[in-house]
Amino acid sequence: MYRAEKYPNFDLEKFYQFLNSELLYLVEYEDEWLAALSNAAALLHHQLADINWVGFYLIKNGLLLLGPFQGKPACSSIVVGNGVCGQSAMRRETILVPDVHLFSGHIACDTASQSEIVIPLMKEGQLYGVLDIDSPSIGRFGPADQVGLEAFVATLMEHVSWEKVVF
User: Which of 68, 81, 154, 163 could form an SS bridge with 37, CB 3.0 to 4.6 Å?
Assistant: First the structure.
C-alpha cells in the first residue's frame, strides 16, 4: 500500500477494492479457517508497503492467542484490555495508533514497530479476535487504510467458517 502523499495519483480506495477482491478469491470457497487466515495474512504482508508485521490474534478465555501471521516472532498471548490489540478487542472497535510510543500500555513485541492498526474480528456481535498490522514508520496508517482494512475484515468474517475454529 503506497502512501498517498508520496504517490498523489495512487487511489487507496481502488487499491483496497483490489485487495478485497484478491481476498475473496482466496477465501470464498475455503472451508478451513486456518488456511483462510493464513492466506489473508500472507496477502496483506505481500501487498501492503511499509509494514513489518501482520497477523491474527484469536480469542480464548479472555486471552488473545497468536494465530496465523507474517513477520518476526510475536507475543504468543495478550490479555483482553492490554496493549493496542487488547484494547481493540475490549472496545470492539478499530484502533489506529500513529505513534505506538504515545499509546499508554503499548506492548512492544517488535521494537521496530512505530505505528499500528488493529481491527476486531466481529460477527453477529461475537468477538473472534483481532487483525493486527504494524509498521516501522510513524504515521503509516490513516483513515483510508482503516476503511479499506475494515472492509477486508468484513469480507473475511463473511467467508470464514468461524463455527469450526477450535483451540
Answer: 68
